């Protein structure tokens, strides 16, 4: 048996399920149509599953230890922060992510959020729909300085698109080695985060959630940014201290922020950020395009079979 948790998997499941069945694996579908809890995962798959194709549903160490037959976890996506990788290794459970399947879609969303915020699209649309004709003045992106934190698959795709929009792009990534890419696209590689904070008109986060990146955007970082900065987060909610961000937004210490991700998803109904006009959001849809979902379904299935069959 193989547990398949992501709801969007269902859109392109036929080919994937045929592949699994060809090799003797029977899929268990998530019929609830939402992210599962640890208890639900264990109930569905604890006894029988040899593999899991998992979205953002939690797989902490204590749960991994309770599976009776689990051999492999295939992440339907990129960020593996919902899986206890250390415990998985300890238990001999293999883990792979679907790298290279959703970076274009996430990059396009980051650019979309920049343009949406620069032209006040959400507030203008809400006002006009509410009966108030408003023509608000926004900003151009051309010539603006974009600071990318993290220059991996997504960061690079954002960089290429931003260069196309005639922005000036800088990247902070302590593991950066690709001088050819930086030269080709005329990207400045910055070795100090504080410089990126001070110089950027727009800052976009493209790092994984790790102990060292947890709440990297806090009061200290926000204080170093320009008062006109737009902050974009399509990576993980945990990268930002949401209380500090709220204070910065409510005091107009920064121009605005856009998030696709939250430390708790869905965000609590009383989340203070959501009410602010200079805060815009999407509902963790970075990877949710038909093209990307189709690739994630196929790659995560192939990855699982590769791990199970050796
Ligand atoms: P990637 O592994 O290709 O790139 C991550 C980059 O971050 C690497 O180049 C790495 O060197 C760099 N990095 C690591 N630690 C850093 C640090 N402390 N400071 C600066 N840079 C650092 O990953 P990716 O495909 O570009 O994805 C990035 C993140 O985006 C994922 O980890 C995931 O959390 C998030 N993501 C979100 C969605 C969504 O739906 N919104 C979809 C896919 C990925």
Distance N to C terminus: 17 Å
Return residue spans where pLDDT drops below 50 for at least 5 consecutive residues.
none
Largest beta-sheet characterization: 7 strands, parallel
Overall residue-averaged pLDDT value: 97
What fraction of the residues are assigned to beta strands by DSSP?
A: 5-15%
Give the fraction of residues assigned to helices. 25-40%
Number of strands: 12
Tell me, what's the shape?
Answer: globular
Q: What's the Cα radius of gyration?
A: 21 Å
Q: Encode the helix/strand succession as letters.
A: EHEHEHEHEHHEHEHEHEHEHEEH
Determine the structural class based on helices, strands and strand pairing: alpha/beta
Question: What is the gist of this entry?
Answer:
It comes from Paenibacillus psychroresistens. This protein has 12 helices and 12 strands. The protein is an alpha/beta fold and 310 residues long.
């Amino acid at each position: 048996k193989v547990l398949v948790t992501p709801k969007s998997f269902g859109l392109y499941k036929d080919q994937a399920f045929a592949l699994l069945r060809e090799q003797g694996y029977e899929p268990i579908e998530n019929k609830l149509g939402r992210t599962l809890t640890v208890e639900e995962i264990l109930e569905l798959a604890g006894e029988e599953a040899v593999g899991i194709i998992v979205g953002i549903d939690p797989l902490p160490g204590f749960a991994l230890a309770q599976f009776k037959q689990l051999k492999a976890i295939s992440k339907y996506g990129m960020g593996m922060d919902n899986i206890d990788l250390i415990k998985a290794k300890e238990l001999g459970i293999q883990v792979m992510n679907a790298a290279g399947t959703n970076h274009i879609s996430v990059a396009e969303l980051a650019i979309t959020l920049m343009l949406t915020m620069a032209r006040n699209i959400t507030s203008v649309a809400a006002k006009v729909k509410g009966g108030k004709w408003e023509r608000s003045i926004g900003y151009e992106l051309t010539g603006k300085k974009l600071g990318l934190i993290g220059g991996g698959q997504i960061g690079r795709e954002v960089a290429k698109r931003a260069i196309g929009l005639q922005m000036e792009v800088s990247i902070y990534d302590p593991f950066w080695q690709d001088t050819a890419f930086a030269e080709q696209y005329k990207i400045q590689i910055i070795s100090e985060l504080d410089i990126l904070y001070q110089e950027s008109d727009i800052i976009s986060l493209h790092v994984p959630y790790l102990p060292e990146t947890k709440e990297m955007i806090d009061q200290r970082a926000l204080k170093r940014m320009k008062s006109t900065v737009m902050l974009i987060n399509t990576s993980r909610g945990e990268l930002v201290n949401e209380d500090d961000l709220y204070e910065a937004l409510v005091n107009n210490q920064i121009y605005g922020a856009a998030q696709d991700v939250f430390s708790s998803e869905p965000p609590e109904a009383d989340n203070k950020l959501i009410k602010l006009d200079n805060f815009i959001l999407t509902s963790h849809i970075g990877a949710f395009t038909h093209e990307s979902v189709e690739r994630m379904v196929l790659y995560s299935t192939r990855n699982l079979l590769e791990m199970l069959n050796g």
